[in-house]
Amino acid sequence: LAESVPVSQVFTKECFGACLEQANAKSNDVKNAAKEAAFAICDNINPFAMKSLLPAIFAALPVEKKWPIRELALQCIARFQANAPKQLGDALPLVVPEVTACMWDTKKQVKVAATDAMQKALEVIGNRDIEHMTGKILTAITKPKEVPEIMHQMAGVTFVQSVESPALAMVVPLLLRGLREKSIATKRQAAVIIDNMSK
Questions:
Q1: pLDDT digits (tens, 9 = 90+) for 106-162
Q2: Do the beta carbons of residue 115 and residue 139 sit within 8 Å?
Q3: Residues 6+ apart with CB under 8 A from 158
Q4: What is the pLDDT of residue 21?
Q5: Three-state secondary-structure class, residue 107
Q6: CA-CA distance, 59 to 17, in Å (whole number)?
Q7: SS3 of 121-184
Q8: Rounded to an integer, what distance in angstroms lies between the CA atom of residue 135 and that of residue 110?
Q9: pTM of the model
Q10: What are the residues whose beta carbons fall under 8 Å from the beta carbon of 98, sequence distance 6 or more?
Q11: How far is CA 115 from CA 17, 121, 127, 160, in A?
Q12: 146 contact partners, CB below 8 Å, separation of at least 6
């Protein structure tokens, strides 16, 4: 239905949460079918309806949920990069905090899926001034010790393009971390970056 009957999206969307929950089914056939169905819904949803799937995805991410459910939910976020890049970019202020929390998960599979989802999200920020820094921003999320060095590099960036919400969703958590650092130099660099972005 999701692949061949676009008008059914209003109904397949309602099944999406159930598909995510079945990622933890005992039967491998059910598991695989649920994964295929969830991916088909994400890949074929009208880009403007993409945000309507986020509540179901976010509901599947808390630590209390079984790890296969969380892994599938994160994989679904990554799928939007191909089908709805603009809409995923607009939704980043909501998506980034949820995915960031999963990047510190104790389960390796969840951590890998979260890192992949964040990587795909970084591809849609649409800001040429910081596109070359996306790998370093990703590193800063998982390795806080790298923050001072990354702040130093970002302080040298000249922002020509307007910094809009997708880019801010990625940069603001990094800036907050920089401002909380003990080093005065790192705090100063965070302030310089904020000043550069505001011009």
A1: 999 999 999 999 999 888 888 888 888 888 888 888 888 888 888 888 888 888 888
A2: no
A3: 129, 196
A4: 94
A5: coil
A6: 8
A7: HHCCCCCCCCHHHHHHHHHHHHCHHHHHHHHHHHCCCCCCCCCCHHHHHHHHHHHHHHHHCCCH
A8: 19
A9: 0.85
A10: 57, 58, 61
A11: 22, 10, 20, 29
A12: 136, 139, 140
CA distance linking residue 116 with residue 94, whole number of Å:
17
Distances (CA, A) of 60 to 45, 104, 172: 19, 16, 25
Spatial separation of the C-alpha atoms in residues 56 and 77, rounded to whole Å? 11
Q: Which residue has the tokens 């986020």?
A: 54
DSSP character string of 29-81? HHHHHHHHHHHHHHHHS-GGGGGGGHHHHHHT-STTS-HHHHHHHHHHHHHHH
Which tokens sit at 89?
């970019």
Number of Cβ within 10 Å of residue 132's Cβ equals: 10
Residue-wise pLDDT for 81-93, tens only, equals 998 999 999 999 9
